From TrEMBL:
The Fe-S cluster can be nitrosylated by nitric oxide (NO). Its cofactor is [4Fe-4S] cluster. Belongs to the WhiB family. The lineage of its organism: Bacteria, Bacillati, Actinomycetota, Actinomycetes, Micrococcales. This is Transcriptional regulator WhiB.
Length: 146
């Protein structure tokens, strides 16, 4: 087999995530959640439009903060910054729709996002799932600040 041959068992790569400039993450998206219903939330086209990331708070702060373990002071600080971010809803929607595996997105850790992704995959509309996620994130942030 040549180095360029693929086998039928090799799963397609869903997406790549590259850092174009410090703090500026660009994603080469793959497939969204199957059967996605975007009702009440941003459209797939809007999520794929990279301009929404321009206002991201994490574009001007050390991005490693967002990839710390979730119970560290650094991670809690990153989550608190997400709550000041003007694109938090888009960020969370994007992470859920494209199943972002790593790091804090929209103020939620990967393990906090998994149940929301499952809801999306089971046909629940994005708007409702997104509201749940944002509420959960707000509650967690308030408890962390208390
Ligand atoms: S919500 Fe958080 S992770 Fe998402 S773009 Fe804003 S600061 Fe970055």
């Amino acid at each position: 087999m040549t180095p360029f041959e693929t086998t039928p068992r090799r799963a397609p790569i869903a997406y790549d995530r590259v850092q174009a400039t410090p703090g500026n993450w660009l994603r080469n998206y793959g497939r969204p959640v199957q059967g996605l219903d975007t009702a009440g939330g941003p459209s797939l086209q809007a999520l794929l439009e990279p301009n929404w990331m321009r206002g991201a708070v994490c574009a001007s702060v050390d991005p490693e903060l967002w990839f710390e373990e979730s119970d560290t002071p650094s991670a809690r600080y990153a989550i608190s910054l997400c709550h000041e971010c003007p694109v938090r809803a888009m960020c969370l929607a994007s992470a859920l729709v494209f199943r972002e595996e790593y790091g804090v997105s929209g103020g939620l850790t990967p393990s906090e996002r998994r149940p929301l992704e499952t809801r999306l995959a089971s046909g629940e509309a994005l708007g409702g799932v997104l509201s749940l996620g944002l509420s959960h994130s707000d509650e967690g942030n308030q408890q962390g600040a208390a």
